[in-house]
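Table S2 (text version). Query chain:
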Amino acid sequence: MDISSPSEGLLMQVPVHVGDALKQGDVIARLDLRPLERELAISEAELLSARADLRIAELGVQDAAARLHRREDPRQLSLGAISEEELMTVRYENDLAVAKKDAAQARVREQEARASLVRQRLSDATIRAPFEGVVASRYVDPGRRIQAGEPLVLLLSSGAPQVRFALPEEDARQISVGASAWVHLAGRQDPLEGRVTQIAPEVDAASRMILVIAQLKDAPKDGSAPAGSVVRVAPGPLHDSGTKPFAKTSGR
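Corresponding structure-token output:
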């Protein structure tokens, strides 16, 4: 599985190499955190300011409500101690205080959402292994700027070894999931038996090839097939003389 960066940025660290065994959660790469850390500091400061404004608005509502309550006292009204115009003014001030509080609450929610988004981006800037596996390929080096979605490494599951290869569109139509696949290693006489487990549903527009993944039945115990090995893959029965190798892979 290609492990990609969820966001763009300057790549600062790639502390993994081909053949490294990773546990789930291990760091694969880190982007430059400094711009996001500055943005988070600004967001949190603005959030504190928004919360302070909300507290002031809440006090304003309490004060306006208390004044309105005093002015609407039936005894005050019966004695004519307050004019209708003054009562309308106090009611308006109360409504205005409530509106200011609502606006302050909205600003707090906005700043909370912004700070949360920056925290998520900051977390995404450290790319971690989503599962236990072995690094089969490393595509990038520190110091370059990468785009969101750009693959960083190829990570293969620590389960049964797999082989990734690409086929021309016409050849891919001749195989199906479950088909046999024989993997030939350089310097090894006997091929390894495998089964096709995945076939990409779409053709790559640029190469007109289809990605196929096969799972090996048994991994060689002599270390002759480390992650990242280049191999030849042939379909069909082992002794089919008409079988030709039809792909190469950089998988394991």
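Notes on Table S2: The longest strand covers residues 192-199. Helices lie at 34-71, 74-79, 84-124, 169-172.
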